[in-house]
Amino acid sequence: MKQIKTIEYKENQLILLDQRKLPVSREYFVCSTYKDVEFAIKDMVVRGAPAIGATAAYGVVLAALEFENNSREDFAKNMAIACERLNDSRPTAVNLMWAIKRMKKIISKNDEVKSVCNLIKAEADYILREDINTNKRMARAGSNIIMQGAKILTHCNTGALATAGYGTALGVIREAHYSGKNIYVYADETRPRLQGARLTAWELKEENIPFTLIADSTAATLIRDGKVDVILVGADRIALNGDTANKIGTFMLSVVAKRYNIPFYIVAPTTTIDFEIETGEEIEIEERSSEEITHIVDVRIAPADINVYNPAFDVTPNEFITGIITEKGILKSPYNVSIPKCKDNSSV
User: Fold this and answer.
1) Which part of the chain is CATH 3.40.50.10470?
2) What class is the 7-135 domain?
3) How is 59-127 classified by DSSP, letter by letter?
4) Where are the alpha helices (DSSP H) in the chain?
């Protein structure tokens, strides 16, 4: 199995595999300041909820290095500004807010600046390391629901590129492949940024996992014709009732899956659960630039001066979700009972 390293911190710099450049070239984006990290998250140099969380944590580390010679009062003030900017860099992925909250807790509980800087760095390292371990536990749990010879449909990119390593939904696919289940994957292209065509296809090809790339609009036909056994997708935020925000187009897949009785699973770490919101109606949906719709690789494909609606995510209601695969096991309906159990350290 090939190791895809997307996030690395060394010599006081954060090095990110630039996902805007894939699959044409493998280039790296170097962040020397927290503002570089803010840009990297906003411009989708890095994307995927777990990867964004880990990246933001290191953004706080870079901010601490920038302000470590400040007085304690100025340090706290400047760190609050940096955390707020990082927290606001993208609004939907809850892992981002989760990571920043952990860092702010360290800052508030320690008075000595040097000690804070060391503790923040240790916490960021832990978040990165733990995400990889979490992904592997999810992969093992999820692989149990994948039957021999399964034909799997997936949407957007949920692999090593979207996490600190290994992946969420694509991690389950990896585990099934390497355990000899003879699976086959259909990967949605995932308009408008084509994360499926550019990133998922790249990862699947890198690891020699059999797959076919399809247009998003092809998925319903495959499902109707019995060519899909299970659908695996990721998540950017999960409400207490199981409503799940994920890449735009996910909700549409879930409706078709329900119509044809195809199992539809979310694969996400418990850090993607927002324990402070009751339903998906409370999830803020990011709307991105109209140019993502009107252009492909800077080439205009639509008329100028037209109205464009470009939400980055949609919310899949809990009744369309067969189960939520986490590192603590597979959550089942009623989710308002199974999800709260994830707040403690017990398995579900």
Assistant:
1) 144-343
2) mainly alpha
3) HHHHHHHHHTTS-HHHHHHHHHHHHHHHHTS-SS-HHHHHHHHHHHHHHHH---HHHHHHHHHHHHHHH
4) 34-42, 49-67, 72-87, 94-109, 113-143, 169-178, 195, 201-206, 219-224, 250-259, 291-294, 335-338
DSSP β-bridge partners for residue 5: none
Distance from C-alpha of 302 to C-alpha of 294, rounded to nearest angstrom:
5
Q: Is 202 left (phi over 0), alpha (psi -120 to 50) or beta?
A: alpha
The DSSP secondary-structure symbol of 52 reads H
User: How far is Cα of residue 46 from the mean position of the Cα atoms in its chain?
Assistant: 10
Range 144-343 classified under CATH 3.40.50.10470: yes
- DSSP annotation of 187: E
Task: Look at the pTM and tell me if it is higher than 0.70.
Answer: yes
Catalytic residue among 18, 188, 216, 236: 236
Task: State the CB neighbour count (10 A cutoff) for residue 264.
Answer: 22
- Tokens 């084509």 belong to 194
243 is catalytic: no
Taking the C-alpha atoms of residue 92 and residue 146, their distance in angstroms, rounded to an integer, is 29
Radius of gyration of the chain (CA): 20
pLDDT tens per residue across span 79-131 = 999 999 999 999 998 999 999 999 999 999 888 899 999 999 999 999 999 99
CA distances from 78 to 68, 104, 148 (A): 10, 12, 54
Q: Is the pLDDT of residue 233 over 90?
A: yes
Output the CA torsion 239→244→248→250 (10° steps): -170
